[in-house]
Amino acid sequence: MCSNAVSWSGLILAAAVSTATAQPADEVVRERQRDMKVMAAAAKGIDAMFKGVSPYDAKAFKAAAETIRTYSGERLAALFGSPVVTVDSKASANIEVERTIFDKLAAELGVYAAALSLAADRNPDVIAPGMRMQDGDAKMGGPLAKRKTAALDPRSMPAEHAFHTMLQVCTSCHAKFRVKDK
């Protein structure tokens, strides 16, 4: 699951709202791509710690989570303002049509990243058992799936579950709002 979840690596993050609106479209696309790589690297660092490939370092874990949080939400949404579809962009026109959903996903990304940052504060020495997913932590079909019950508060779920759910936000956003390669 984790390797598939990290395949969201192309998730594009944003620059400041004023910067995004003042730049030509090709510069915004390059900025989206640069920011996405930064976010992907941050997620890969967290993933490596959960997998035990890299030793757990609470400061690095928190820094990676804060990187994702910083580039999500309004900042992310701003880089996908008009025009969304430009040369060399894989952004779909669906972003303009379903702006509310796109903005919600951008905001959720930040909420899960903030939960990961808090988990690093709470666990300064090791990935404690409470940070790990439990048997009952279901994926529930991702953030766009219909639910019978309200979603859990990310701050109350194990960090690993928040991480996987955050990656599902990325995957869902790409599935809905990214043009497929031909």
**Could you say which overall geometry the principal axes of the C-alpha atoms support?**
elongated
For CATH, the homologous superfamily is named as Cytochrome c/b562
Instruction: Indicate the structural class.
Output: mainly alpha
Number of domains in the coordinates?
1
Helical proportion?
Answer: 55-70%
pLDDT average, as an integer?
82
Which parts are unreliable, with pLDDT below 50 for 5 consecutive residues or more?
Answer: 1-21
CATH C-level? Mainly Alpha
Sheet having the most strands? none
Question: Which descriptors would you attach to this protein?
Answer:
single chain, disordered N terminus, 0% strand, 58% helix, Four Helix Bundle (Hemerythrin (Met), subunit A), 182 residues
Descriptive notes:
By secondary structure, the protein is mainly alpha-helical. It has a single domain (2-177), classed as Four Helix Bundle (Hemerythrin (Met), subunit A) (Up-down Bundle). The chain is 58% helix and 0% strand. It is elongated. The chain starts with a helix and ends in a 5-residue tail after the last helix.
